[in-house]
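User: Sequence for Zinc transport system ATP-binding protein AdcC below. Tokens please.
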Amino acid sequence: MRYINVENLTFYYDREPVLENISYHVDSGEFVTLTGENGAAKSTLIKTTLGILKPKKGKITISSKNNRGEKLRIAYLPQQVASFNAGFPSSVHEFVMSGRYPRQGWFKKMGAHDLEHVKAALDSVGMWDYRDKRIGELSGGQKQRIAIARMFASDPDLFILDEPTTGMDDVSSSDFYQLMHHAAHKHGKAVLMVTHDPEEVKDFADRNIHLLKDKNGKFACFDLHTDRDRVLQEEQEELEEKANV
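Assistant: Structure tokens for Zinc transport system ATP-binding protein AdcC:
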């Protein structure tokens, strides 16, 4: 089932076009990565897709229902989400538990099922043993992991993640990618993840969307193994033509 469908999206910063004629999709049951060089507007594309930023033109459709016919639940993890200061008052367990409130309602009492979700979420990122610690006492990588655990606790249908493994070591990153692959393939979730290292995640992801500058200097989406090669070939041929003039 198609959860995200973006058609011919163009975005401007002031009067400068940053993204032009972007089209891509994400379906339930797949783990999709989004890559591109530094400054390739990957975060901008995510924010525009979510409606945080307004496109100049184009059509963005996000499904209202999941593949079970229920209301679609979206979890968005932006960059630098783990910048809690040392005085942050919540414990790890309280913070992750708060991810269950939107599902149950702010005034409903948490039950055994909710507690199981929280434990499973903390276990999944290796943070159950830290459940009673104050968030401000954690390292940057540990804060990132509990932010991910809170997201898991909310049990979303669609994960939109902007470089979620920042601050994690290689083992933790690999475990996370495997977890997202499992969520997509075994539970029908959809995952769209910005990453700076496609090689690191290639064994777990189903598809890679690559943002690449075209010959006019604007970023557009290309399939990593087809359109990208075609565009690079066209640019090479153009350079050779100019060299022969």
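The first strand starts at residue 2 and ends at 13.
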